[in-house]
Every structure is written in structure tokens, then in C-alpha cells.
Amino acid sequence: MKRASVHIIFATVALCCAAVAAYDWLRLQHAQQVNQSVTATLTANKTAAKATPRSVVSTEDDAPQVRLARAIALSKEGAYDAAGPLFESLIRDQPLDETGRAALFDLGNLYLRQGIGHSPSGAIESLAMVEEAKARYRTLLRIAPDDWDARYNLERALWLAPETRSASGSPDVKEQHNVKVRDPESRDLP
């Protein structure tokens, strides 16, 4: 009797371990499929970009994780015009889940990078990009108030473009025309 119960306990533990291993294997297979899809899409995008600079291969049938990974990769390559609409579509399709929150955060980072970068059009465009980043971080913090990365980036954006109100209540016209964006010391974002 004692030996039989030890064997039953051992068999139960072995089955639990096998179930966990099978679950992890399925997640690994899914992650590899996502990576292959992103790699194939980015390769197709680079080929298409050489032929026609504005074309981006994007299918709405892809999994949200694939679209998010594609948008992040495009953003890191500096293809902001292609990455922005992908982030926006993810936010529109998946507003409250983890993928939508990640897209919202990364879109804020994209705008903040554009605002930090010294664009040829000057400080006005930089200020607009920083304001867009602040709006995205605030939206994310309304959804997930405990997101510390978004809080940090919002504070950094507020440091770059402070929101101060004049004491008189009406803004000074001269102050409105003297818009300056602070130069950040480091260019990395979480």
C-alpha cells in the first residue's frame, strides 16, 4: 500500500511536469512563428522600400504580437512614418490588453524620440512631438496607473517641454513665440 501511493504521487508529479513542459514548448513554437513572420515582413519591407520608398508590407490578418514586433522593429530602424500607423492600429484594435498598452507606450516613445531628435523643421515640430508623447503616456497611465516606465517617460517629456501657466491668466504673446525645447542629456528611453 505504501509503495503504491508513492508510485501514484510520483506519476502525478511526472504528469504535471510533462504538462508544464508541453505548455512551454507550445509557447516556444508560437514565439518562433512570430519571429519568423516579423523577419519575413521586415525583409519584404526592405526590398519594397528599395523599389518604392513609401510602401510597407502590412497585413491586418497577422497576430497582434506580430504587428507590435514589426512596428517596434520599424521604429528602431528609424522608419517612423511606417511604424506610427501600425502602433495606432494596434491601439485601436487592442486598447486595453497588454499588446495595446505596449503599443501605446512604444508610440509615446516614438513621438518622444522624434521630439528629442534635432529635426530640420525646428523646435515647433519638436514641441508638437513631445506633446503627442505626453498625451500617449497620459492615456496609458489612465489605463494602467502603475506603469512606472510610462511615468518616467512622461516626467522626462514634461522636463523637455514644461507646462507652466502664467500668473495673470492670459498668456503673453511674446512668450508664445519664444518656444524652446530643452536638450536632453541622454537619448535612451526605457
UniProtKB/TrEMBL annotation:
Species of provenance: Paraburkholderia rhynchosiae
InterPro entries per record: TPR-like_helical_dom_sf
Entry keyword set: Signal
Location of region: Disordered: 164-190
The name this protein goes by in its record: MxaK protein
Cross-referenced Gene3D superfamilies: Tetratricopeptide repeat domain
Residue ranges, compositional bias (Basic and acidic residues): 172-190
Upper taxonomic lineage: Bacteria, Pseudomonadati, Pseudomonadota, Betaproteobacteria, Burkholderiales
Signal peptide per UniProt: 1-21
